[in-house]
Inverse folding.
């Protein structure tokens, strides 16, 4: 996001770079060999019940489910903010559109409910059928918002998107006979799978509060699948012509335009793809909570999403997932906790101050590490992956980890 | 519950009211009320526009500066011996004006101080590092969070629960709203008069300061060309500080006027929407342009109230945001254009 060399002086070397260098030098199968067990470990976190890691005040499965949704949002927002460099402060609007799409199609309180006897949605598969619809509608809303506003630059775009986020919430609040206004829409559909005696409404139902395999854990696992799919999708885009265009736009829009990149088209693509992923997360939310209400889509959530992306490292897919984890996990970690390793603390108070700490973290981070915790490294995008790996491996073997192949 | 059901039924036929008749009947009253709100937006908008003119930075935290001003004037009234209650104090005209003046100075001091402090702590380190503008904006968002949450959680601890917290402050009301006279069927209340006159004097003063004094010339010079201005002996840092100070002081004044109009608005989250609208106003008039901000504030205030009567109460904010998007789409430089530096050098 920065073109200014004096600002971009990053410390080269260190543990992170050594690891990155080693990782990139490995062949794909070796990467999978390490990656798959790691993903499995992360997936099993909520049922392993590790003493210091597990949250005290709330259910760990529920927290991880929320993390899954935030991770998806962070991946989507990262396409817009991190890849294409478009500051979007109204991202919660897309999240809301996704959630409301599912709710409007499946809630009995909605006038467009399709799950009843006359509807075209079967009650057990309604949510899954709505997921692609929600993604599509949100992507279209991204197109509708993006096509007039993406001609704006930088700060102006930020404020316009902020306005859009507020408009979506106000619409949900004011169109009472459609969205139920402030009362919201209840009894939203969810995947009715795994019906058993202990979970009569299926394992995904919010009523499934079993001690280990509760609904939160199931939603978390489901979101991991979606996250991996989203990562593959976005990762492939990044390495394609589209991704190179995004980087070019982010670094210098005028130069990109002069070099023949149709900037408006690619900015719109970033917006639409980001919106679609946000809508997917919104649909997850609606299904998990089975209830949508306008107050859950305040602009402050937008800022929290942005915080996740900036904290983790704009442009780095894994970084933003880490950012999402920090944003969701830290407040819940402190909630209800009275001591850490024997040191007494007032966890509830710390959890309550979360916005204060996130705000401070943003300010401090912007001064000392504006590129985020795990910053992105621009690889040799113009060449194929094989060539890049070969170059990397040779360097790794010859001069060790300290040499960087950037830009 | 029956009322709710009844309104739902009437709404079912028309999702959005389009009440042209009411607008026609109330148009003058709405214009007057809109100008009152608009005057407040205008004063806050000056802060956005001056900072943008000099630094090309949207000071997202300016809305919180305004919010701190509301608490500042409230604290001063508490120190003057007024106790929060729903009742209206009746101190006589002269004394009331003096008290309001002191409270306004308190609000100005708190807001101005906070604005300068924000510039020192948050923005100056970034300027030294030559950070790109998105970094500034994200810092501003972070600062906005910090100030809000400070008032939300920390201030009540510091003041023993007298200030801050989740709930709005119990208002201290010095002025009883009453109609002074009527023009074209529009009632002009004493509060309207106070707001319009103070806002007029303040904006006239600011305009004169920026356009006619040595300091103002420094501000315009830096806005036009920072490097040349520095070579000509203008201290850029001092100009930036001065800009934040002027914006903060005006926001503090606007804070007092706003609490006169809406006594129950003193709450930690009370600045946010108003800040966005003031920014809207600044963009509407042409951001970076002082007179544009004043004009934009007035226009926005009036349009918003027209929209509220036309479409219904809940749509007031929607009107403001849609207006913002439309302006940015069709005339991104605003009505008067971006020209703090170039206006009458």
């Amino acid at each position: 996001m920065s073109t200014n060399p004096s600002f971009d002086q990053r410390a080269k070397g260190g543990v992170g770079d050594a690891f990155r260098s080693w990782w990139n030098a490995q062949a794909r199968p070796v990467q999978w060999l390490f990656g798959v067990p790691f993903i499995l470990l992360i997936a099993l976190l909520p049922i392993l019940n590790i003493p210091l890691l597990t949250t005290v005040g709330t259910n760990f499965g529920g927290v991880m489910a929320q993390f899954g949704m935030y991770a998806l949002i962070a991946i989507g927002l990262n396409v817009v903010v991190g890849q294409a460099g478009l500051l979007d402060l109204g991202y919660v609007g897309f999240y809301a559109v996704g959630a409301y799409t599912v709710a409007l199609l499946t809630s009995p309180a909605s006038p467009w409910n399709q799950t009843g006897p006359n509807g075209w949605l079967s009650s057990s598969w309604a949510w899954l059928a709505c997921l692609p619809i929600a993604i599509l509608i949100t992507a279209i809303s991204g197109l509708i918002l993006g096509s007039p506003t993406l001609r704006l630059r930088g700060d102006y775009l930020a404020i316009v998107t902020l306005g859009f986020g507020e408009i979506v919430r106000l619409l949900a609040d004011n169109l009472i006979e459609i969205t139920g206004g402030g009362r919201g829409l209840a009894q939203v559909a969810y995947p009715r799978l795994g019906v058993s005696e202990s979970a009569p409404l299926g394992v995904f139902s919010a009523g499934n509060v079993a001690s280990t395999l509760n609904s939160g854990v199931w939603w978390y696992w489901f979101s991991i699948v979606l996250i991996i799919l989203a990562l593959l999708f976005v990762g492939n885009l990044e390495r394609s012509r589209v991704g190179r265009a995004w980087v070019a736009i982010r670094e210098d829009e005028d130069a990109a335009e002069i070099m023949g990149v149709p900037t408006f088209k690619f900015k719109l693509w970033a917006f639409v793809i980001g919106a679609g992923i946000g809508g997917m997360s919104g649909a997850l939310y609606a299904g998990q909570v089975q209830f949508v209400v306008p107050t859950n889509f305040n602009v402050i959530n937008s800022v929290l999403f942005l915080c996740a992306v900036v904290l983790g490292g704009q442009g780095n897919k894994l970084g933003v997932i880490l950012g999402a984890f920090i944003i969701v996990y830290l407040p819940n970690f402190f909630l209800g906790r009275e001591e850490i390793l024997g040191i007494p603390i007032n966890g509830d108070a710390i959890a309550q101050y979360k916005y204060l700490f996130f705000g401070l973290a943003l300010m401090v981070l912007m001064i000392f590490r504006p590129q985020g915790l795990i910053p992105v490294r621009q690889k040799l995008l113009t060449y194929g992956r094989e060539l890049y790996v070969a170059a990397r491996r040779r360097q790794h073997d010859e001069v060790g980890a300290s040499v960087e192949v950037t830009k | 519950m029956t009322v709710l059901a009844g309104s739902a039924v009437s709404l079912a036929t028309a999702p959005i009211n389009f009440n042209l008749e009411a607008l026609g009947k109330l148009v003058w009253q709405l214009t007057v009320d809109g100008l009152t709100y608009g005057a407040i937006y205008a004063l806050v908008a000056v802060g956005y526009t001056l900072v943008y003119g000099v630094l090309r930075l949207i000071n997202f935290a300016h809305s919180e500066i305004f919010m701190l001003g509301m608490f500042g004037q409230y604290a001063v009234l508490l120190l003057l011996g007024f106790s929060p209650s729903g009742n209206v104090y009746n101190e006589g005209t002269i004394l009331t004006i003096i008290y309001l003046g002191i409270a306004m100075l308190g609000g100005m001091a708190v807001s101005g101080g906070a604005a300068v402090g924000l510039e020192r702590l948050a923005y100056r380190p970034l300027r030294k590092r030559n950070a790109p503008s998105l970094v500034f904006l994200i810092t501003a968002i972070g600062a906005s969070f910090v100030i809000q949450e400070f008032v939300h959680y920390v201030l009540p601890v510091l003041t023993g629960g007298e200030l801050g917290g989740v709930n709005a402050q119990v208002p201290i009301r010095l002025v009883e709203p009453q109609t002074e006279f009527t023009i074209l069927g529009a009632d002009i209340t004493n509060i309207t008069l106070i707001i319009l006159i103070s806002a007029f004097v303040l904006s006239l003063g600011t305009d004169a300061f920026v356009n006619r004094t040595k300091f103002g010339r420094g501000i315009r010079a830096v806005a036009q060309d920072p490097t040349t201005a520095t070579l000509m002996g203008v201290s850029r840092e001092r100009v930036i500080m001065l800009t934040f100070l002027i914006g903060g002081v005006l926001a503090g004044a606007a804070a007092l006027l706003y609490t006169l109009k809406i006594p129950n608005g003193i709450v930690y989250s009370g600045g946010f929407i108003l800040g966005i609208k003031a920014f809207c106003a600044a963009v509407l008039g042409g951001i970076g342009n002082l007179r544009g901000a004043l004009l934009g504030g007035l226009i926005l205030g009036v349009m918003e109230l027209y929209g509220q009567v036309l479409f219904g109460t809940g749509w007031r904010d929607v009107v403001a945001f849609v207006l913002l998007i439309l302006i940015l789409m069709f005339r991104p430089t605003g009505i008067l254009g971006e020209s703090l530096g170039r206006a009458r050098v």
User: Anything to note?
Assistant: The longest strand of chain B covers residues 179-183.
